[in-house]
Design brief:
The chain has about 350 residues and is α/β, with parallel strands linked by helices. The chain is built from 10 helices and 12 strands. Helix 1 links the parallel strand 1 and strand 2. It is elongated.
């Protein structure tokens, strides 16, 4: 099995590494992904992609409904890292794990690294709904929807001046498939778009990942900066969107120091991982009026408990990790995994292979 990313080689006839008939895996472990249970049609799609493979369902607690000793492939959903490692220890034949999430910090555990497992992820599956969520929140702030709703609740007729998005500068931290999708939609609204990414010289098309639907539109970037130039970008942006994976380099990227570089009235929108934001620093900035507002869809602690002080922070919009949600994402997620199963059986390169050193 090739561990480099890329599309299928149409001329390749080499059988895959699976020990089942035709190179398919002998057994596949399925953990809960975007729903508690797989739909019948999801299982049909997986069986069609790997005929004859035995399917083993693994619960949230790590308990399987069958033996794991011959499992070669795992479709991993929302398993905590410690549960994943426990399952890994009972699956000596496991070679490849497909993460149904774009972030893989809970899959790249020391145990999985030591085993040298091939890891693929769901890059591209969630780009469209998350991009739409971000634009919804930008419009909410620019058109002053929270204030208008307050006026309605007070039975007050008071028109408010709003901003057009073509007068807005958007900064995107992380220019992967989600960041590009956000930038493409923002471009369509006339925003000036800037971004930071680890490799500034990389391409800037709107599609990045096998799960992408072509196309969200043209992405026009004013500038692409390195992570070290983040303060320079923050100083120019009206909205800052966090769309980067969680790595040691991105942890706590929105800190007191970063906020000090931001324009008064700017907004932070986090659709990545809660650990990218210093929640105390953000809370202080909002309470002191140094930022216009913030939108958090992901948190250090999830579910966010009812006692969390974040619920009462002024100008903070909280949503329950739902930016990714749409009626299409489960079909795309299962479809991407099935496509990779066919590549696996044919001995072709898998899509969305993760670089364990980079963390994404």
């Amino acid at each position: 099995m090739t561990q480099t990313d890329g599309g299928p080689d149409a001329g390749s006839k080499a059988p895959g590494p699976g020990s089942g008939a035709g190179g398919v895996p002998a057994a596949i472990a399925l953990t809960p992904i975007l729903a508690a249970r797989y739909r019948a049609r999801d299982l049909d799609v997986i069986r069609a992609a790997a005929p004859g493979a035995r399917l083993v369902t693994v619960g949230f607690d790590g308990h399987p409904d069958g033996p794991l000793d011959d499992v070669e492939v795992m479709l991993r959903g929302r398993l905590p890292a410690e549960v994943f490692d426990r399952v890994l220890g009972r699956a000596p034949a496991l070679r490849w794990v497909h993460s149904a999430t774009a972030g893989v910090e809970r899959v790249l555990t020391p145990a999985s690294r030591a085993r040298g497992l091939v890891i693929t992820n769901a890059r591209g599956v969630f780009s469209r709904p998350i991009a739409e969520y971000v634009l919804m929140m930008m419009l909410t702030a620019a058109r002053r929807l929270p204030q208008l709703l307050e006026l309605q609740a007070e039975h007050t007729w008071q028109p408010l001046e709003a901003r057009e998005l073509r007068d807005v500068t958007l900064g995107i931290v992380g220019l992967g498939s989600i960041g590009r999708a956000v930038g493409a939609l923002a471009t369509a609204f006339g925003c000036r778009v800037m971004a930071t990414r680890r490799r500034p010289e990389a391409g800037s098309d709107a599609s990045d990942g096998a799960g992408d639907e072509p196309f969200l539109g043209t992405l026009m970037l004013d500038r692409v900066l390195s992570p070290g130039q983040l303060p320079e970008m923050l100083a120019e942006c009206d909205f800052v969107v966090l769309a980067a994976p969680l790595t040691e380099g991105t942890r706590g990227v929105i800190s007191d120091e970063a906020i000090a570089h931001m324009k008064p009235g700017a907004w932070v929108i986090n659709v990545a991982r809660g650990e990218l934001v210093d929640e105390r620093a953000l809370t202080r900035a909002l309470r002191e009026g140094r930022l216009g507002g913030a939108v958090l869809d992901t948190f250090l602690e999830e579910p966010l408990p009812p006692t969390s002080p974040l619920y009462d922070v002024p100008n903070l919009i909280i949503t329950p990790h739902t930016a990714w949600s749409s009626t299409r994402v489960l079909d795309r997620s299962v479809g991407l995994f099935a496509d990779n199963l066919r590549r696996y059986a044919a001995g072709q390169p898998l899509a969305n292979v993760v670089d364990p050193n980079a963390g994404y």
